[in-house]
Amino acid sequence: MNYRHAFHAGNFADCMKHALLVALIHRLCAKDTPFRVLDTHAGIGTYDLTASEAERTGEWKRGVGRLLDITEGPLAPWLDLIRRAGFPPHYPGSPALVRMMLRPRDRLVLCELHEDDSAALRTLFRGDPQTAVHKRDAWEALSALTPFAEKRGLVLVDPPFEVEGEFGRMAEAISVVAHRFRAGVQAHWYPVKHRAPVRAFHTALADGGVRDIVACEFWLREPTDPQRLNGCGLVVVNPPWKFEEEARAILAALLTHLGEGEPGQGFAVTRIAEE
Ligand code: SAM
């Protein structure tokens, strides 16, 4: 396990994932009944952008660093939250963001397999009765920890994609969770380096029998160089009502601020499987 999210926190891919995540949680908050969130690849929870890892890559400067002054529009709900969390220089990852949005009866379950990162996560949430931290394999946790007692909620799957076969594993996980927890919302993040593996992933999902799937994608440039993170995607199963519209507005705003005018930049929210 070589991947450490501290090098990448706040980059364009985090902006996309976290702005959409906040939109999904807002929609879960629309009903009074409690929900649970399972974040299977949690990282360390929150990041210091002045730390040496973030300084070394400087990725956040071309990501969230360009959004500092925005207070209105589709990105504002997420940006207001991160400012409340101390941005800059503190940048809340998915666990800290979700935790800020929970009501008193909602729950957060975090899995992180890396020794040091799971220890950091445990320290961050020590004494929090609404948050459970597991040093546990994400893929195994998806079966072990679903469905939720609350009968509603979100499963966030955000792997580092550092090993072969991650797209296949993700397609399988989507099917497993859909069968165990039919009403659950699922959000799975993936990199877009070049088109072929993404196309194959979408085809596997379309043919896999799980209903009601949309793919949100954001590209900084034509995805033709397999060595570069040219874009990223978030597949959402059981998207809440009106989420697709909101996702389009969020991605359009991100493109306005993060796009560098390269050929092939853009975004799309497309249906992979009908309801
Ligand atoms: N979701 C986080 C956020 O948005 O703030 C970032 C997560 S980062 C992209 C992926 C994390 O997954 C890393 O911290 C890595 O250590 C962890 N990881 C990798 N393989 C794992 C596995 N099989 N089970 C649990 N965690 C894993």
Automatic annotation (TrEMBL):
Any one GO CC term of the record: cytosol
Biological processes per GO annotation: rRNA base methylation
InterPro entries per UniProt: RlmJ (IPR007473), SAM-dependent_MTases_sf (IPR029063)
One GO molecular-function entry: RNA binding
Top-level taxonomic group: Bacteria
UniProt keyword annotations, A-Z: Methyltransferase, RNA-binding, rRNA processing, S-adenosyl-L-methionine, Transferase
Site feature Interaction with substrate rRNA, where: Y3
Swiss-Prot/TrEMBL catalytic activity: adenosine(2030) in 23S rRNA + S-adenosyl-L-methionine = N(6)-methyladenosine(2030) in 23S rRNA + S-adenosyl-L-homocysteine + H(+)
Active site per UniProt: D158 (proton acceptor)
E.C. numbers: 2.1.1.266
Residues engaged in binding S-adenosyl-L-methionine: H18, H41, S94, E112, D137, A138, D158
Enzyme class: transferase
Family in the record: Belongs to the RlmJ family.
Subunit structure and binding partners: Monomer.
Record function comment: Specifically methylates the adenine in position 2030 of 23S rRNA.
Name the record gives this protein: Ribosomal RNA large subunit methyltransferase J
Organism: Teichococcus oryzae
